[in-house]
Amino acid sequence: MKLADLQMIAEHEVDFQRACKHRINVCCSSGCVHFGAFKVLKAFEDAIKEFGVEKECKVAKTGCVGTCSVGPAVVIEPGDYLYQSVTPEKVREIVRDHIVLGLPMKEMLYRNEAFFKKQRRLVLRNAGKIDPSRIQDYIAMGGYSALVKCLATMTSQGVIYEVVSSGLRGRGGAGFPTGQKWSLVARAHGFPKYIVANLDEGDPGVFANRALAEADPHAILEGMLIAAYAIGAEKGYIYIRAEYPLAIQTLQKAIAQARSMSLLGESVLETSFKFNVELRFGAGAFVAGEETAILASIEGRRAMPRPRPPYPANSGLWGKPTLIQNVETLANIPLIVLNGGAWFSKIGTPKCTGTKCFSLTGKTNNPGLIEVPMGITLREVVFAIGGGVQDGRKFKAVLVGGPSGGCLPETLLEQPIDYDSLTNVGAIMGSGGIVVLDDQSCMVDTAKFFTEFCVDESCGKCTPCRAGLARIKEIFERITQGNGKLEDITTLEKSGVYIKEASLCGLGQTAPNPVITTLRYFRDEYIQHIVEKTCRAGKCFKKEGEV
Amino acid sequence: MLEKAMKEHDYQESALLEILHKAQGIYGYLDRDLLMDIFQSLNLPPSHVFGVATFYSFFNLEKPGEHIVTGCLGTACYVKGVEEIMQAIEREFNLKRGETTADGKLSLFVTRCIGACAMAPSIIIDGEVIGKATKEVVIERIRLSLGGAKVETR
């Protein structure tokens, strides 16, 4: 395929879509599939035939719309009518009233406009709009035109310049400036060079990367292709959790399609640029998301981190220069190339540009997948987008950044969401989990839960993380069984700091965050557990078998 | 079939994880003999292959029961009370998480997040995800599966 062909496909697809009066997008991402989305999809296909409107309607299987708690979600275009909790039984009525009679069924529409109002969808630009299994859908939305622009009009340095000026920082959690990383790998000596797209979303409670892969796999591939062009890589790996079967299938299909259209392969778009992508499957190790651990895993070894330097930019996969990026970072790249770094740098805050995807879960009224501009406050996310706390209960804390994030109280809700502000209050951006806790959650129990997680997931290589976290866990067991001592609080605090400072990798360096933040903001609960031996949320001090 | 997969990967050490995935896909779990075959074919030290197989929690080293129940212990599920459901299952069927009943009918496992957080708490029964689960519903479903009755799903 040549450059001109791509344009033709886009035009043809747009014409084809215009010819359809209605487009029915059925969300078929993992969440909605569990609610029966495939049966709803089939019901729509049957119903449009039954009413004889199959010529003017297109039923599409799309990715995540975002409103995961009211699935299966269905969007009917034009007009973006979002139907919630659609059942196969209701489908016939929807087709009859909405499509045939032109009367949308108001009582089934999602009315919570606030959920979308404060969001800004860049990474998720196509999520819920295109059929991820059709590359034509992606091309029609302008997909792969950024790649074309790079190959036809830009030098590799020019691409890197745009990424640097965009101010984009790594979305995997650490927030390293992406452009700087690219220049390091581009300048590094050694051949071949590799790209690793990190989709090992091991944080419990986070599903933003999975949703992205299921909704818009080509955005990830296009981002990888542009990165490869910029740094001079010929081979890329997408490292994905084996627990994400639907995302794996979607990506496999996307790779095959891109290959068949010579967007991947020995001669990309009939130019001298070549690039191939392979999938590699994780196997349930949280630490494998760490950048040196992911390399070990791809090389077929245990996912154990190693000390840096040397950094992967100089010595990564098989000792060669390697660029490791989270898939969300990569999905931003086509937009930056198309609109320019300067455009991107105006979104978000000056030091933290762009948007961030979060999975909003826990005791929130509107759990789901959201994308917000950097700098938005936690309060806006929890109360405006999330619609407040479920069942009218009292807000207690918000957990930002997964199992090694921080538990922040109500007084910190005005904090803007960006890498530096979150780090200042003891949390981290992490890979994008926001969990809302209400007054039924015990903060001591929550910190214990995360510590247990980190003890399980510690790879065991360095002592502070392996032994230190285990001691913290023992102290928590003591406290929650009524055998705590007041000195335990000091021990927890001290050990937390030691583990953070002395651990080898990001897992150990952040694992004590929940302990440290709960001690900082909810100290009275610890004291109550130790002195009064009571738990105001009623979670602790249970005998075996008691619920 | 496994031999073919190893050949495809050219017996490369770096393909070890892919081969273990493939092996578990074919046989359901990785027993000692299977791992021995793999380290011999790939010409790797046994410690390396056993090390990798035991490091990753996705690999089962023992034969799982006929029916598999997995509780999602991700944050969202935990906050929404999956622990109570897990304890109820343990009491009801008299087994602990990570175990298989003596008759080999039922295994109870835990996983760290399946990413269906908006429907928390989630329990997976024989591959089917039960979202917004309650202990009553889950126990009833497990009973039905064990009884061999076909379960009608949405």
Produce a short descriptive summary.
Chain A has 547 residues and is of the alpha/beta class. Chain A contains 23 helices and 15 strands. In chain A, the strands form 4 sheets. Chain A has a 5-stranded mixed β-sheet, with helices on both faces.
What does this entry look like structurally?
- The complex is a heterodimer of chains A (547) and B (154).
- Chain A is α/β, with parallel strands linked by helices.
- Chain A has 4 domains: 20-111, Glutaredoxin (3-Layer(aba) Sandwich), CATH 3.40.30; 135-346, NADH-ubiquinone oxidoreductase 51kDa subunit (Rossmann fold); 349-438, Ubiquitin-like (UB roll) (Roll), CATH 3.10.20; 443-532, NADH-ubiquinone oxidoreductase 51kDa subunit, iron-sulphur binding domain (de novo design (two linked rop proteins), Up-down Bundle).
- Chain A is 44% helix and 14% strand.
- Chain A has 23 helices and 15 strands.
- Chain A has helices spanning 3-19, 30-34, 37-50, 88-100, 114-117, 135-140, 145-153, 156-166, 178-187, 208-215, 217-231, 245-260, 291-298, 327-339, 341-345, 378-385, 419-424, 443-457, 463-480, 487-502, 506-510, 513-521, 523-532, and strands at residues 22-27, 57-62, 74-77, 81-83, 194-199, 235-240, 276-281, 322-326, 348-349, 352-353, 355-362, 368-373, 395-400, 406-409, 433-438.
- In chain A, helix 7 (145-153) packs parallel to helix 11 (217-231), helix 8 (156-166) packs across helix 11 and helix 11 (217-231) crosses helix 14.
- The longest helix of chain A is centred in the C-terminal third of the chain and has 18 residues, at 463-480.
- Chain A is globular, with a radius of gyration of 24 Å.
- The model of chain A has no long low-confidence stretch (mean pLDDT 94).
- By secondary structure, chain B is an alpha+beta fold.
- Chain B has 2 domains: 2-55; 67-146, Glutaredoxin (3-Layer(aba) Sandwich).
- Chain B has 7 helices and 4 strands, in the order H-H-H-H-E-H-H-E-E-E-H.
- Chain B has a 4-stranded mixed beta sheet with strand order 2-1-3-4, with helices on one face.
- Chain B is elongated.
- The chains are: A alpha/beta (547), B alpha+beta (154).
